[in-house]
Amino acid sequence: MEHEETDALSTPEGLHLIQDELETVEDDLLTEEVASSLDGCTISTASDINPLPPPINIYWATINIVLLVLVFIISTLLIALVWHLAPRLPDGESIKIPTSLAQLRHLADVFHKYKDDHFAYSLLIFCSAYIWKQTYAIPGSILLNLVAGALFGMWIGTGLISILTAIGSSCCYLLSSLFARPLVYKLLWRQTMMIKGKIVANRRHVILFLLSARIFPFTPHWLLNISFPFVGIPIYLHFFTMILGMLPYHFICVRAGRILSEIKSVSDIFNAATLAQLITIAVIFVAVGIISKRLKREPRLPHLVTD
């Protein structure tokens, strides 16, 4: 009887059955590993009903929120200090974060004059402002992306803002992990669970999934930055997929910054053609993951059975 069972398992059908069983066990282990970061709340697919968040300790939640506010105040004061200590601008000009294209053109002109005499300090001001905006998910980074194109050129500008974006979003990741847990549990738990389901569903190709999410032009990146600490994405993976995934978007912005004087509105930058390009790249990454997953499910040639 034992010999017959061994022979049955030695057939191609038997080997394929064993292989499927091992993949099932691996899937279960991966699901448990990924779900362990959610304080015991297991979610297997994106279609699962939204679970209730874990209970919140009011005392620790208050401390975390107070610390988060203090970090924001201190970092904002440091940014203000950097700007205050900057060498005097020509003709009594002032530097402020632009909120419109008109202010952006004026800022680019001021920076052009300023960086010739104080390049290092102008770079420090730009980098500190960019990281600060990314850290606290403050809208308007596209305007600074255009400034980068106008000041530093296409290739240096693209590389610079890609690195700054990754640094700022990683700071957001860390602040969320350290202090924002009660806010996530209270305000963003449903969205976090949806992201969790997507990650578990794409766990075998999570890098391709993260890259496609970053490339897709309508992704709420601030939500990913805040929720990733609670869905099992390590910070190093978050950092590098942020750099690579945002490169096409940054390249388009910086390229537009080179012709800043000709831009009348944001729609001149992200027209139907550029949006289609970003969506196509994102779809390609998703398709690669799906095709790879299906290929792994195809029957494999049996191993040679030896006595």
Plain-language structure description:
The chain has 14 helices and no strands. The protein is globular. It has one domain (2-297). By secondary structure, the protein is mainly alpha-helical. α6 (141-152) packs antiparallel against α7 (154-179), α6 packs across α13 and α7 (154-179) packs across α13 (247-257).
Relevant terms:
mainly alpha; 307 residues; single chain; disordered C terminus; 14 helices
Short structural description:
This protein is an all-alpha fold and about 300 residues long. It has 14 helices and no strands.
Layout: helices, strands, pairs:
Elements: H1 2-10, H2 12-35, H3 58-84, H4 101-117, H5 119-135, H6 141-152, H7 154-179, H8 181-187, H9 189-201, H10 206-215, H11 221-227, H12 235-245, H13 247-257, H14 272-297
Helix pairs in contact: 3-5, 4-5, 4-6, 5-7, 6-7, 6-13, 7-11, 7-12, 7-13, 10-12, 10-14
What is the count of DSSP helices, taking H or I runs of 4+ residues?
A: 14
Let me know the largest β-sheet: none
Assign a percent range to the helix content: over 70%
List unreliable stretches of 5+ residues. Answer: 1-10, 14-19, 21-49, 295-307
What fraction strand? under 5%
- Strand tally: 0
Radius of gyration: 25 Å
How many domains? The number is 1
Q: Structural class per helix/strand content?
A: mainly alpha
Helix-strand sequence = HHHHHHHHHHHHHH
